């Protein structure tokens, strides 16, 4: 097998927050030491609670943010070495809100074609042909070419955002909650479209979502984040069948499948939400973890395991035969 | 025993530049004490306006009419706004999706919670404070006493939503209307808050109207479900019947759109409902779903269709459900 298409190597990003009259500015570690390798054609989902760093990681991957430490490599070369334009051609984002991410004063045709203009090279007629071909690809009628975003439905707007992302034929599409703002009937159309495009164009996805049923449906691999770090990573089927990290378990337990009569499950998570500026020592999850050991309050567990599955939790030991749960 | 809430032929019309928008078109609802009714349906189908119409909180431009609108023995159709506002926050309360629409950023959490009670009851402030601490504790806010002096912006979204729920509970209401109360939260917090709502509901015998478009929430929380489409209830059923034997083509379409682990295979095509919801302006004769319906036939365009009663409590508005 070839090397990964995109690779994150110990990537961290912090922001400086607070400040003001009596307060010192303090660093907020939004993403800490994240290492990930994504192969061509994979569809990697990032999940985790609000504020755990998913969007920050997405913005790092599309080159919108610089890492404070670590490196992101595309085909073995850092994003910086590729240059902004080359990165934009090969990695494109699709964001959550199809309402605010489209310029209301530009027509559909102008919005979808914009990346071509930035790249240069396409003349008027050729540009229009490319835009119309892409519109057809994502299921937008050509008659909408001269329409403005406010004349479109939510699903049509998200298709415009997808068409704009795909017009330069990127290899990687980073989708940050692409269907969260949509009705379920529109969500299913967009998910079907993303699946078709992946097969037809051999795309690689990074897919962020709070909807775990959607993640299970579309992802090939899942990385679970907690407070800026990856705490578990595994193939989708394996992760949903046998989650290891106590946080992953709580997350999966919280999923409300449409089965009447089962009631709302108890997550067994306390309300001790962590402060990202002042993360708990040891395992950042320990104040909410019902399985925590003494060691968890002191030492941060490292992400251990192999290509198949990795977990950062003291309850597991990694050996040549894989990850096994400690028998206390 | 009479139902706690009886709604018959509720209508909400809103004047717009392109004509009168019939946002809610003849909705009938019934709710018993302690019962949970869920309203579901596509964005814009009239869920929020139905709720606001019950609470007497419609935007000024909206016109409400109803054949019958009774709550706990009161006739709301005729009730003057003064008395309506006495009911609100006391016997009926609302929880919104975005807590900041109901929390005032200029006052502490404690002041706002106490105020909710003192407006309706003659009590010493110390008693109101006691209740506030009790309820904050119940909604799972630790160190409740010290939270009272905090301002809303100092709390996370999940905590604010809990404060909102505590506020709705201050007077011990008989009915809570919650409009997408957990949509902005992540799944673990969502589960915590819904579980809490159900617990409190059982404990205090409250009725709950829960608006959501998450079918997972509906299945786990509701006793009965009303599915709305273009301003009308098109199917109404006990929750089990709705998920196991839905009859309206729109409801069935919705059920096929969502991935369900174990039922849908990863990666396989999901169902879709092609086409768009019509804007409810102008002529609205016949079934409004017919331009998207796989089963549509000529008589779907005729006036009606009427509600048909199938089994106990299961009603469908479709010509096929004969
Ligand atoms: N520009 C910024 N300045 C300061 N802090 C930031 C900035 N961007 C993000 N953060 C903080 O970094 C952390 C991670 O934020 P991020 O948006 O990546 O989370 P997320 O996992 O995408 O959350 P959500 O699920 O709510 O979208 C949060 O604590 C957030 O407040
Ligand atoms: N103040 C208003 N002026 C004009 N039209 C309005 C107003 N409020 C709502 N509407 C319209 O009334 C219809 C019903 O709106 P409503 O807010 O009840 O929908 P909803 O079912 O709650 O949708 P969502 O799931 O998006 O919250 C929509 O077509 C909406 O555009
Ligand atoms: S390391 Fe310890 S505290 Fe952290 S998740 Fe594992 S058991 Fe819980
Ligand atoms: Mg985000
Ligand atoms: Mg609404």
Q: What do these coordinates show?
A:
The complex is a heterodimer of chains A (328) and B (322). Chain A has helices at residues 54-61, 79-82, 84-90, 108-119, 124-137, 154-166, 184-201, 212-218, 236-241, 246-253; strands spanning 6-18, 25-38, 43-48, 69-74, 77-78, 91-94, 172-176, 204-208, 221-226, 229-235, 304-305, 309-311, 316-319, 322-325. Chain A has 328 residues and is an alpha/beta fold. Chain A has a domain at 245-269 and 281-328. Chain A contains 10 helices and 14 strands. In chain A, the strands form 3 sheets. Chain A has an 8-stranded mixed beta sheet, with helices on both faces. Chain A has a 4-stranded antiparallel beta sheet with strand order 2-1-4-5. In chain A, strands 13-14 form a two-stranded antiparallel sheet. Chain B has helices at residues 47-55, 81-87, 109-118, 125-138, 144-147, 157-169, 187-204, 215-221, 239-244, 249-257, and strands at 5-16, 19-31, 36-40, 63-65, 68-71, 74-75, 92-95, 175-179, 207-211, 224-229, 232-238, 308-309, 315-316. In chain B, helix 3 packs across helix 4. In chain B, helix 7 links the parallel strand 8 (175-179) and strand 9. The mean pLDDT of chain B is 91. Chain B has 10 helices and 13 strands. Chain B has an 8-stranded mixed beta sheet, with helices on both faces. In chain B, strands 1, 2, 4, 5 and 6 form a 5-stranded antiparallel beta sheet that branches. Chain B has a domain at 5-91 and 212-316: P-loop containing nucleotide triphosphate hydrolases (Rossmann fold, 3-Layer(aba) Sandwich), CATH 3.40.50.300. In chain B, 30% of the residues lie in helices and 22% in strands. By secondary structure, chain B is an alpha/beta fold. At the A-B interface, helix 7, helix 8, helix 9 and helix 10 of A face helix 6, helix 7, helix 8, helix 9 and helix 10 of B. Bound molecules: adenosine-5'-triphosphate (2 copies), iron/sulfur cluster (SF4) and magnesium ion (MG) (2 copies). One magnesium ion (MG) binds at residues 47-48, 179 of chain B.
């Amino acid at each position: 097998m070839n090397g990964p298409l995109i690779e994150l190597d110990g990537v961290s990003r912090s922001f400086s927050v607070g400040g003001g009259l009596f307060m010192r500015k303090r660093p907020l570690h939004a993403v800490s030491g994240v290492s990930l390798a994504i192969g061509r054609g994979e569809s990697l989902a990032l999940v985790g609670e609000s504020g755990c760093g998913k969007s920050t990681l997405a913005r790092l991957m599309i080159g919108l943010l610089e890492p404070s430490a670590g490196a992101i490599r595309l085909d073995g070369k850092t994003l910086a070495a590729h240059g902004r334009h080359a990165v934009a051609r090969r990695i494109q984002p699709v964001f959550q809100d199809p309402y605010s991410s489209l310029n209301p004063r530009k027509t559909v045709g102008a919005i979808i074609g914009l990346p071509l203009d930035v790249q240069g090279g396409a003349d008027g007629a050729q540009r229009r042909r490319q835009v119309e071909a892409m519109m057809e690809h994502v299921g937008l009628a050509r008659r909408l070419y001269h329409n403005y975003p406010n004349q479109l439905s939510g699903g049509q707007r998200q298709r415009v955002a997808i068409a704009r992302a795909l017009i330069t034929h990127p290899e990687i599409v980073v989708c940050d909650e692409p269907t969260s703002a949509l009705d379920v009937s529109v969500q299913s159309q967009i998910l079907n479209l993303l699946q078709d495009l992946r097969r037809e164009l051999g795309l690689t996805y990074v897919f962020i979502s709070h909807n775990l049923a959607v993640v299970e449906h579309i992802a090939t691999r899942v990385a679970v984040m907690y407070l800026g770090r990856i705490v578990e990573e595994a193939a989708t089927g394996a992760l949903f069948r046998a989650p290891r990290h106590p946080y992953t378990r709580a997350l999966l337990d919280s999923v409300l499948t449409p089965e009447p009569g089962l009631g709302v499950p108890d997550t067994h998570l306390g309300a001790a939400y962590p402060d990202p500026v002042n993360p708990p020592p040891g395992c950042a999850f320990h104040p909410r973890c019902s399985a925590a050991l003494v060691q968890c309050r002191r030492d941060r567990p490292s992400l251990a395991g192999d290509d198949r599955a990795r977990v950062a939790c003291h309850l597991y030991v990694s050996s040549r035969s894989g990850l096994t749960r400690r028998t206390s | 025993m009479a139902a706690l809430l009886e709604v018959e032929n509720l209508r909400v019309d809103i004047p717009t530049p392109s004509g009168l928008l019939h946002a809610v078109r003849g909705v009938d609802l019934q709710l018993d004490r302690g019962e949970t009714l869920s309203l579901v349906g596509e964005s814009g189908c009239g869920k929020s306006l139905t709720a606001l119409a019950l609470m007497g909180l419609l935007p000024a431009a909206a016109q409400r009419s109803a054949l019958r609108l009774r709550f706990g023995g009161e006739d709301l159709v005729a009730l003057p706004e003064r008395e309506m506002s006495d009911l609100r926050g006391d016997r009926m309360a609302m929880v919104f999706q975005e807590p900041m629409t109901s929390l005032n950023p200029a006052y502490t959490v404690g002041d706002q919670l106490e105020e909710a009670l003192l407006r309706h009851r003659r009590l010493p402030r110390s008693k109101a404070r006691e209740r506030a601490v009790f309820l904050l504790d119940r909604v799972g806010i630790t160190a409740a006493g010290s939270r009272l002096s905090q301002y809303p912006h100092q709390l996370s979204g999940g905590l604010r939503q809990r404060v909102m729920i505590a506020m709705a509970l201050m007077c011990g209401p008989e009915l809570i209307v919650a409009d997408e109360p957990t949509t902005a939260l992540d799944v673990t917090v969502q589960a915590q808050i819904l579980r809490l709502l159900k617990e409190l509901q059982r404990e205090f015998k409250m009725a709950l109207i829960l608006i959501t478009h998450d079918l997972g929430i509906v299945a786990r929380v509701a006793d009965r479900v009303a599915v709305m489409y273009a301003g009308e209830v098109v199917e109404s059923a006990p929750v089990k019947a709705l998920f196991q034997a839905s009859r309206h083509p729109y409801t069935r379409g919705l059920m096929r759109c969502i991935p369900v682990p174990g039922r849908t295979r990863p990666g396989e095509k999901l169902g879709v409902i092609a086409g768009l919801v019509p804007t409810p302006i102008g002529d609205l004769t016949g079934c409004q779903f017919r331009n998207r319906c796989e089963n549509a036939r000529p008589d779907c365009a005729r006036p009606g269709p009427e509600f048909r009663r199938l089994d106990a409590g299961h009603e469908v508005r479709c010509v096929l459900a004969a």
